Amino acid sequence: MSITMFISCTNDSADNEAVNEEVAAELRALGFNTDDLIATTMRGEEGYLVERDIFLTDEDIANLAPRRSVDNGNEVNTEHYRTNNIVSTPRVLNIYFDDGFTRSDVQAAFDEALDRFNALNLDLTFQRANAPGADIDILAERLGRVRGNIILGQSAGFPDAAGNPATPIILNSAVYNPRRGGVPADVVTVIAHEIGHAIGFRHTDFFDRSFSCGQGGDEGDAGVGAIFIPGTPAGPENGSWMLACSSGTDRPFTSGDQTALTTVY
Ligand SMILES: [Zn+2]
After folding, report:
1. Is residue 29 domain-resident?
2. How remote is the CA of residue 6 from the centroid of ligand 1, in Å?
3. Residues having C-beta closer than 5 Å to ion ligand 1
4. What is the CATH number of the domain that holds 136?
5. Centre of ligand 1 from the C-alpha of residue 8, in Å
6. β-bridge mates for residue 42, sequence order
7. Please, one GO biological process term (predicted)?
8. Distance (Å) from CA 72 to ligand 1 centroid
9. Would you say 50 and 31 are in contact if contact means Cβ atoms under 8 Å apart?
10. Inside any domain, residue 153
11. What's the CA gap between 233 and 254, in Å, rounded?
12. Residue 158 falls inside a structural domain
């Protein structure tokens, strides 16, 4: 069974706008899957929600160039990919986790996500910041529905050309700071996943979301705009933290994930 990581149901409604084909074609040329593409806003800024949890403005899309080829042109890939820009190293990344997440188990999940990165001894050190305005802010917000779907997390895209991570990340506090009951089991993975985008990792299955999402097609002609990370698995790998969707369970870094992280950083 496959439950989407970032969307928890699939009702129909039309509170977001269709995207013009020109923008969609540009995103496809950059290697994004545009099946779920919508025009929306994030904290008042206009842009597009891509692959369900990546928010990009027109400027972000322009900045994702120059375009680079993937390794082999295969149509279906579940390998690891990074964006052209990555965070400059060595660097300590201060990351703020909103105190609007009032539950101690959710705050502990954030610390656990940072610990997972730090356990790999990367050239990036992940450190909790005490106030917003950090290198990456993870903000609590009760996210509205997008086409009737509940969005669990949203990243502000990818690192900029100056080597800074993307910020902020929005985490749906209606889901991850529940007033009663347990916190979803995938909370550490979702936090690590959104940080993954902020430091330059693409969805490992962006060519074929059906691998993790159970639906969604093979993009076929997409083939540029994502750089293959050498040494990562060439075949499907269940459990990667950068799959577009998951079983809703906790997924510590796989060996392929670890290779991807240690190769880039
Ligand atoms: Zn994602």
Report:
1. yes
2. 8
3. 53
4. 3.40.390.10
5. 14
6. 45
7. proteolysis
8. 23
9. no
10. yes
11. 10
12. yes
